[in-house]
Amino acid sequence: MKKFYSLALMALTMGLVFVSCDKDDDAKESYTLSYSLSKTDSAYISSDKTNLEGYYYKTELTVGQFNMVHAWGPWGFGGGFTYSSCTDDTSAINSNLSAITKKGVKSNTYFISYTGGEDFGLPAQITFKDGKAYTAKECYVTNATNAYLAITQGRAEAYVKQWTDQDKFTLTITGYKNSVKTNTVEFLLADGLNVVKTWQKVDLSKLGTVDMIQFSLSSTDGSVYNGITYMNTPAYFCLDQLTVTE
Q: How many domains does the chain have?
């Protein structure tokens, strides 16, 4: 059984799915990841408890041609991807599943990712429903509210250092085919004091033909605990309009 989680009403009526399928000049089909919810300030969280993995319940979120890792726990969204129409751009808490833009590229809805779940074996990955490989084309990305505010306003914890013009917050996008890495694309969500606040197009053509795309985040703001370096910047970003072709 699945449920919708609404920040206002704890309930949500289902929105509309938009996954475009186009023909380009070479008659190749194109698929674009997109979604539209009927209400704002809402986000999807599964309630399926059949697949416990580490601290999370792991499920698969399917939108059109795209399969996404989706995980949740007693505290809410726990890793991978979910879709959201949340508009809170002022709350610097991880339970705030909002993009700093407060909307998607073409609708009120976008996809938000928590990549920190990969520490428990739950990386943020996207595959394809038919199991085929596709040629990566492009996507749009921006900062999640909690990451944006952590960088621009700082955090109260003593171990988190002040963000400087030398710091970087990097999204790494990696393509795979038959479990072999094809290539990577990096995009700076924060380059010093230049912090992304709008939707930015990312060219994914370097990835080539892939059957899985994995997303990870890294930051120059980290703390060492028991010999392990942990990222202090919240491991969240937002994605929309991911496009692949046959």
A: 1
Determine the Cα–Cα distance for residues 210 and 127; give it in Å rounded to an integer: 9
Please report the sign of the dihedral spanned by the C-alpha atoms of residue 102, residue 232, residue 215, residue 76.
negative
The sign one gets for the Cα dihedral 24, 132, 179, 18 is positive
Q: Is the pLDDT of residue 234 over 70?
A: yes
**pTM of the predicted model as reported, rounded to 2 decimal places:** 0.88
CATH number of the CATH domain containing 84: 2.60.120.1350
Distance CA 69, CA 37 (A): 20
Q: Please choose, from the candidates 139, 238, 160, 161, the residue with its C-alpha nearest in 3D space to the C-alpha of residue 196.
A: 238
Q: Give the bridge partners for 184, in sequence order.
A: 174
N-term to C-term CA, the chain: 33
In this model, does residue 241 exceed pLDDT 90? yes
